[in-house]
Amino acid sequence: MNGSKFLSEEEYVSQMHTGALLNPRIDSTFKAMFTQPTEESRAALHSFLEAATEEKIKSFELTANDAPVSYNGQRNVSYDIACVLDDGRMAEIEMQAFDQQYDYGKRAEYHVARLETTYLEKGDDWQSAPVVFQITVLNFHYTPKSRNAINRYAMRTKDGLELSNTLNVVFIELPKITKLEKSIDTNSKLENWALFLKDADNPKKQDFIKNLTSKEDGLMQAKKSLSNISKNKALWIAQWKQESFERDIRSGLNAAMQQGIQQGITQVAKNMLSTGIPLEQISKLTGLSETELQSL
To answer: Residues 202-206: what's their mean pLDDT?
Structure first.
């Protein structure tokens, strides 16, 4: 969905009356598709979690999106979607719609480390440390030298010896997945999920999406959930705001960051705050912590 061709929020939101679908690559839509109190939403998230972790999951529960803060001044971490799986494993899912030009690898490592330290309590032995997954969907190229759309990272020696399989990071780069459109019958579940996320809202790809979703019930349920939330005006407004500030405000942010002008970054953040954009999204764009943003 390209917001630039719409002249106003009202015109943009009017799409909901035409049967158009929200863009699942936008944070607010991505989260809503997976976290509604409906059977199709839970079935979709269940399917995605199994695909991303490559594990069978009996059940899961959504949990707090904010990691606990251990001391005054510690940087806050807000997850898009956080889950506790039936056997105590943890999973956290992020959608990154736009490249903010910071180190997503370090961000993912920090997220997965914070997730790990959230649940181990005083007195627990090390065997109780849960296996945790940090799963990021990237709507841009992160590893241009690698042709793989899906990369799985864990702590290993140079010759591949695994340490403990406790900290796991999964990156899904959507621009690289197009080459797999003709192999949906032999793709992995996660590869087909990536194809769905890339084109679910594309009106020119609906025949392909229909065929794709017929292959796996979880994808079919995701399409139903996306269709249902696409009738929600508030989500269309949220999507318009994100696309608008990415197009209009982010250009000024990039100029300020490239020049290293902190004052410029702060002013851009203030402008975003005045438009009602959520702190979490502004933090992703500017690199400022939510505590810093609250003090502006």
So the answer is: 96
